[in-house]
Amino acid sequence: MRHVYECPLRWADLDLQGHVNNVVYVDYLQEARVDMLRTHAPEPRTEDLAEGVVVVRHEVSYRAPLHYLRASVKIESWVTEIRAASFTMAYEVFDDAPDEESGRTVYLRASTVLTPYVFATERPRRISPEEREALTRLLEPVERVRPVPLAPVERERANHYRLHVRFSDVDVYGHVNNVKYFEYFQEARIRLHARLLRDVEGLAHPTMVVAQTDVDYRVPIMFRPEPYDVWSRIVRVGERSMTVEAEICDGDVVLSRARVVMVFVEPVTGRAVAPDPAYRELLLSPSPTR
């Protein structure tokens, strides 16, 4: 069984290109996940499964741009794996406009690994028999290859960004919400590109879209006045795409890691294109530091 959530779109969700911003999609997934787990969780303590979980990993694949042309978009969610102390969910963001392949327009596909969590003791816990029964009703098992943990970033060749956590970023448990990590990595990525172009004249910034984002959550980020460190580095430049790896740290402690694949596109058609050769050469140069 799959759960379908009607997710309302907001005007503020759009980026400069008129598309729903890549970060906002993760907020949509969170809404769909909470709605699914509240609807299907065992009574009477539905919040234990709906809200008493933490995200371990997100894998998000962006398929097509979503414009603000409708009141809502549909999100289908289901469970693909149940383990002793974690479960994996899959999502598809779509609408019913037909296409030749599936009879729907798919904007995003994603998966999330979650673990039940006792926030009072800051420790994960096992899935209860009642929760397992509820999750099994939504289970469509798939053979999933275990993801390789994201690699450390070479800080001496990375760009440094000082991350200040806002009070509004934290949830009721005092942790930074999982969606905000995507926003933090986006901020650091924008600063990285700005630094690349800082001393270059006459070179326009190409139009890019995010194609894939993978995030590993390792240690909770907490609200505090002191900034955290984000290290970002371009690790691959292809003909029409590039890959940025980043990590959020508290000193030597790694809190989260991300890998983002970005595609260069023609602004009007949205088709993938090769960037200006001068810009590509700039990307291939050693990453700026600090």
TrEMBL record:
Pfam families, A to Z: 4HBT_2
Recorded coiled-coil stretches: none
InterPro entries noted in UniProt: 4-hydroxybenzoyl-CoA_TE, HotDog_dom_sf
Superkingdom as given in the UniProt entry: Bacteria
Protein's UniProt keywords contain Hydrolase: yes
The keyword Membrane belongs to this UniProt entry's keyword annotation: no
GO-annotated molecular function: fatty acyl-CoA hydrolase activity
Keywords on record: Hydrolase
CDD domains from the UniProt entry: 4HBT
Cross-referenced PANTHER family: 4-HYDROXYBENZOYL-COA THIOESTERASE FAMILY MEMBER (PTHR31793), LONG-CHAIN ACYL-COA THIOESTERASE FADM (PTHR31793:SF24)
Protein's UniProt name: Acyl-CoA thioester hydrolase
Organism, as annotated: Nocardioides psychrotolerans
